[in-house]
From TrEMBL:
InterPro entries: ClpP/crotonase-like_dom_sf (IPR029045), Enoyl-CoA_hydra/iso (IPR001753), Enoyl-CoA_hydra_C (IPR014748), Enoyl-CoA_Hydratase/Isomerase (IPR051683). Belongs to the enoyl-CoA hydratase/isomerase family. This is Enoyl-CoA hydratase family protein. One of its GO terms (molecular function) is catalytic activity. It comes from Streptomyces doudnae. Coiled coil: none annotated. Pfam families: ECH_1.
């Protein structure tokens, strides 16, 4: 059963992806619930910032292949994270795969424990990181990122910091984030909103320019024969037919 847990302390609202049985994969229902929770947070004058975190050992495993969300809904969710007039801070203590990296890239600050691992696994199931690239490419080193997009290899938190995917990493992620949250609590709400608008302008340009084309590409690839083979192989825990 998918869901989003909510907690609030001193103006910081924590939203927790709470579908550990599916490794917090982005199902249609989870995307709807997270979109609703973020929208409600933006409308609440008592909320100064949002922390996006998770239950279980995985922050987000990407799209739920059994209940996949519509590409348009994923684009709306990612754009909402970028456009939200509140700073959004990702807190990661587990693994992140595929579309989960899009969530991280759409956040304003992202921190992870050194135990976390990351992978852009789309090519291994016959698709491409199309929608994920909207927030990811403007915020990371494209030359360094190319290797992981093309190979689907796993990389660690230190590499994620070097790429620009993470702001910081440490053994104790809460200790890493403590000064960040303290700083957000000390900042004026209007100043935070306007500063975020300055910082996200380039990311939103990518959405305005490329979202329609990448949404169409994602839909086309996910309905293709290679993707059907790749997703079936993944669910059956075997290599797809193209593996040499």
């Amino acid at each position: 059963m998918s869901g989003v847990g909510t907690n609030q302390e001193r103006g910081v609202r924590t939203l927790s992806l709470d579908a550990p049985d599916t490794r917090n994969a982005l199902s249609a229902s989870l995307v709807r619930e997270l979109t609703a929770a973020l929208t409600a947070s933006a409308r609440d004058d008592d909320v100064r910032a949002v922390v996006l975190t998770h239950t279980g050992t995985t922050f987000c495993a990407g799209a739920d292949l059994r209940e996949p969300p519509a590409p348009d809904d994923v684009v709306r969710l990612l754009r909402l994270l970028v456009e939200l007039p509140l700073p959004v801070v990702a807190r990661v203590t587990g693994h992140v795969r595929a579309g989960g990296l899009g969530l991280l890239a759409a956040c304003d600050v992202a921190a992870a424990s050194t135990a976390a691992t990351f992978a852009l696994t789309e090519v291994r199931i016959g698709v491409a990181p199309a929608i994920v690239s909207l927030p990811l490419l403007p915020r990371t080193d494209p030359r360094a990122l190319a290797r992981f997009c093309l190979t689907g290899e796993r990389f660690d938190a230190a590499e994620a910091v070097r790429l620009g995917l993470l702001t910081a990493a440490g053994d104790d992620v809460d200790a890493v984030l403590a000064p960040v949250l303290d700083g957000l609590r000390r900042a004026a709400p209007q100043a935070l909103a306007e500063t975020k608008r300055l910082l996200t302008a380039r990311v939103l340009e990518a959405f305005d320019r490329d979202a329609a084309d990448l949404t169409a590409l994602s839909a086309r690839l996910f309905s293709s024969p290679p993707a059907r083979e790749g997703m079936t192989a993944f669910l059956e825990r075997r290599d797809p037919a193209w593996v040499l």
